[in-house]
Amino acid sequence: MDTSSFVFPNDPHVPWSIIIVLYPYITGLVAGAFVVSALYHVFHQDVLKPVARLALVTALCFCAFATLPLLLHLHHPERAFNIMITPSATSAMSGFGIIYNLYMLLLVVEVWLVFRPDIVALAQTTRGWTGTVYRLLSLGDREISRESRAVDEWLIRVLAIAGIPAACVLHGCVGFLFGAVKANPWWSTALMPIIFLASAVVSGIAALIALYLFFCWRRQVTPDADCIRAMSRYLWVSLTIAVSLEMLELVHMAYESGAEWHALSALLTDRLAVSYGIVQVLIGSVCPFVLLLLAIQSRLNPRLTAALSATASALVLVQVFAMRWNVVVGGQMLSKSFRGFVDYPLHMGGREGLIVAAVILVLPFIALIYVARLLPLWESVGAHTAGTRQFQTVPIPISGIIDASISVTNHQRTMLDEEQPADPDAFDYGAVVRNEHV
């Protein structure tokens, strides 16, 4: 065997497949979407109001399926409950299980508080099984007072504040799992948790831009140009930070030029040349950087702004997925001998094949569509009802209308007589009374 491509006998395959790639990808969408929601509820960025509810529900739907890739990867998924039954203080996965459950509970409570007035209103007006669902979600409430709503707003703000560090820890824990593997130089860096967290914010904002434009197209409404421009601005800043951290990590490895750098450089230029150099850096980083710079210009046409933002968001989502692929699968391609590479054949079928991965990735979007039918993501039912009541018509006596009409007509007659006293046939006063055009 050629010593330049030596692989140990116990290192012939890649144990973590594309299913494990989806695990940090989905959790990153959760953290990023919640950050956008927190910008509105905590930092009062009113320009993000059109997507505030969408961001919160998106985080909940993706969080519900975040652990599904891990469960499918296990041969005995029922053993996952041992993390909660017999927790270990020194286990990173045990800590992730506790954080995940607390974060899921936080999302459920916050979503319920945000939509509680709408749920109560819909529980009284909806019939059938949907009305039963609303009545169950309302927990017996039949009306919302100002005092209770003020308490809800306070709780929403508290939960949003608490959710920001929880979201950071949730996805930072994923980067910590890879960074703690000391035997793999591609993973074992101090910047790995920070890079995962920065890319999570990037993917969450990009997903919200794409979802918001999709729902606007589906509802046949014009998207809010200021909201899209603001999200594009946040996406551009987050993408700049994430890519800078990734490049800083790579430059630091190259500058150190340790014993493992010859293997890492060969990995980047050989096995990951397409997925890293072309997809992640060129298509997913440079192109969105330029497109977003154009999209955030205030004088740009709103339709062109939406098109540029949608294109950039799609490319950013591809970039983040490529980054997860290069970290998870690319790190396992590096042999423990540092003198060879392991092949990873991507299968279509099987429990961890491409078809199963595509189904897992689609499930949160399907759940989001059904939740959008159940909950008003765009217009509050209570606010709409209040606005309708505010502009109720007030009955006016018929005699008052007649007197006002006669007074206005006489006033018009006097003005016309003063302007044209010499020609009484130049204007038909009966046409004025009948609102006819002469």
Quick recap of the structure?
This protein is mainly alpha-helical.
* Helical content class: over 70%
Number of domains: 3
Span between termini: 102 Å
Structural class: mainly alpha
Number of strands: 0
How many helices does DSSP assign? Answer: 16
The whole-angstrom Rg is: 30 Å
Strand content: under 5%
The major pleated sheet works out as: none
H/E order of the elements? HHHHHHHHHHHHHHHH
- Give unreliable regions as ranges: 382-438
Name the overall outline: globular
Mean pLDDT level: 83
Give the helices and strands, then pairings.
Blueprint: H1 18-41, H2 49-64, H3 68-73, H4 82-85, H5 92-125, H6 128-138, H7 146-179, H8 192-219, H9 225-256, H10 261-271, H11 273-295, H12 302-333, H13 354-374, H14 381-390, H15 398-419, H16 429-433
Helix pairs in contact: 1-2, 1-7, 1-8, 1-12, 1-13, 2-5, 2-13, 5-6, 5-7, 7-8, 8-9, 8-12, 9-11, 9-12, 10-11, 11-12
Could you explain how this protein is built, in words?
The chain has 438 residues and is mainly alpha-helical. It folds into 3 domains: 17-180 and 346-392, no CATH class; 224-344, no CATH class; 398-433. The protein contains 16 helices and no strands. It has helices at 18-41, 49-64, 68-73, 82-85, 92-125, 128-138, 146-179, 192-219, 225-256, 261-271, 273-295, 302-333, 354-374, 381-390, 398-419, 429-433. α10 (261-271) packs across α11. The chain is globular and about 70 Å long. The termini are far apart. The model is unreliable at 382-438 (pLDDT under 50).
